[in-house]
Amino acid sequence: MTEEFEQLIERAGRVGPEYQELVRTIAVLGEEGGKRLRPHISMLLYEAYSKKSGEDILTAAVAQEFLHLAMLIHDDLMDRDLVRYGVKNVAGQYRDIYEPLIEGTARRSHEADSMAILAGDLLQSRTYRLANQIETTPERKERIEALMSDTVERVIGGQVLDTQAILRSSGTIDPLVVAENKTASYTFEMPLLIGAILGGADEHELTQLEVLGKIVGIGYQVMDDLLGIFGEEASTGKSIVGDIREGKQTILVQRFRELAKKAQQEEFDTIYGNHHATVEQIARVRALLIESGARKALEKELSKIANKASRIVEGLAIDSKYKAAFIQLVSRGLDRKK
Amino acid sequence: MTEEFEQLIERAGRVGPEYQELVRTIAVLGEEGGKRLRPHISMLLYEAYSKKSGEDILTAAVAQEFLHLAMLIHDDLMDRDLVRYGVKNVAGQYRDIYEPLIEGTARRSHEADSMAILAGDLLQSRTYRLANQIETTPERKERIEALMSDTVERVIGGQVLDTQAILRSSGTIDPLVVAENKTASYTFEMPLLIGAILGGADEHELTQLEVLGKIVGIGYQVMDDLLGIFGEEASTGKSIVGDIREGKQTILVQRFRELAKKAQQEEFDTIYGNHHATVEQIARVRALLIESGARKALEKELSKIANKASRIVEGLAIDSKYKAAFIQLVSRGLDRKK
Fold first, then answer.
1. 3-class state of residue A84 by DSSP
2. Kind and range of the H or E element at A83?
3. Chain A, nearest residue to B109 by Cα
4. pTM
5. Which of A121, A148, A178 is the best residue to mutate to test the B interface, defined by the most B CB atoms within 10 Å of its own CB?
6. DSSP of A241-257, one letter per residue?
7. Sign of the torsion formed by the C-alpha atoms of A238, A241, A246 and A250
8. How far apart are CA B220 and CA B330, in angstroms?
9. ipTM
10. B160, B162, B177, B186: best to mutate for the A interface, most A CBs within 10 A
11. Please, which pLDDT band fits residue A338 given cuts at 50, 70 and 90?
């Protein structure tokens, strides 16, 4: 990824130093960041099917990281977040750059946010350019390019629904549909398929992987929902009051609504989504989610998903050492620290 | 384009009605809009080289319109504009949609702007998906996809410079470089090359067209700068005080700085960029641009560009009827109503 950023900085320099400055704010974030989950999945799958080194598909791996970074930069804008991976994101860095140049915080923020819009757009264009440079047959490349843009179309759909779930009356939007489109499609289905297509997997295998990506993605989201309420902030780095105060329509809440008694629902509704909920009220929401059986139900679903995922992996036409690595990867996603 | 939007609305429906709503706000804008300059150029060039109907490359034409729309939606966000093509843009339409849903104009505006970010991202992903569907040889398709993302990289560079020219001390950013990257690359070079590549033009022709696109694009920007100061608002639809009050660093201003005497420069600097400049002061800026010889110099450059463009077109390996249509197209761009 470093090499890609160096080239980009070099080319930006031909336009002007101000353009290089933008690319550098992106590179700060890109170098810092993330679990590299998508590249890891793609490379593992590629090795499993082709029996060649995952390094061969570095271009496809970096393309996915660029896309991910583009999404995060625009997501942060929508969420008004200025920090990502423990460093200032593009909008955050430009607030500093503009400090001596622009008077008034409102105008400064607006101009900094504008640069973050451009940063996300630049990374999107580079994503498809990298996809275009993947060394493979024209048919496989065409398929991967199509997969990437179709996945983005789904991710945006999931994002739109997720936003609207908060803005509109609860219950009209299915959090499972959000998880399928926003998480499963992009974090699991796409990387699995990219690795497998480039590795030469046949259609039957690809269908299996698509199903696998979908269920693991949903499981990942279920785990996220549980961690958002019952996790330990110290290990997840995620606030466990945020979801409750925001009134996030999670799969956990959906299960609660199906299982809880009327009185439990009514009590829940007085607290969930209240931005000023007290510590006691938050503890009460947690208790209700346990008492209703919602937590247990989801934990059961998670273990079913893990079993089904293992069965699919076992049935794949890859060597057993890759199956083991794959199952480990899946279970890490589904059994993160609570 | 209608068909593309219908398919997109249909697919969005599979995710949820809230996603369809977003696509519909985009379609309102897309159906309304614009001169369709890029598709027109590409189709003309394709016909000239292939002697087949321009309809054959409709996919490539629509891809360019999608890209253009994506750029405009994000541009409007940066410029805080809510109207485009005489109708409300995505951010504008969502302000209405959210009126009964979100209290407080600041939060409502932020959420509406978030939807416009997503709309631009969606259109970008569809642009590359359409490029992926162009029916041609793998080599030509690969080349066009690369051209499109490389052009976006340049456009964003031009946009960054243009923004920074206003924020930073004047004179450090060359408006010619902005015009080359922001206007010429995207409005002329890209559509010319797409049509010609798909039509089967050889490398020599493509090089000529690249040069042509560059000079015509710069000419187009020069014309825009002149119209921004000396145009008639009624026919251009563009305010002729905006550039002066904003202190826009145009090619016209660059020429003025090269030609004007010290006293003229000093007078100019007291007015240009003053948001409260009076009608008399604005008239004075116009007079200075004429007295210094800057206006005449640019008009001369424009006619040189028009001559050079005609010579290049004359030398192309296409039938004379296409040359005539092409020269007409070029001169319409370079000689718009003042």
1. strand
2. strand A83-84
3. A78
4. 0.94
5. A121
6. SHHHHHT---HHHHHHH
7. positive
8. 9
9. 0.94
10. B160
11. very low
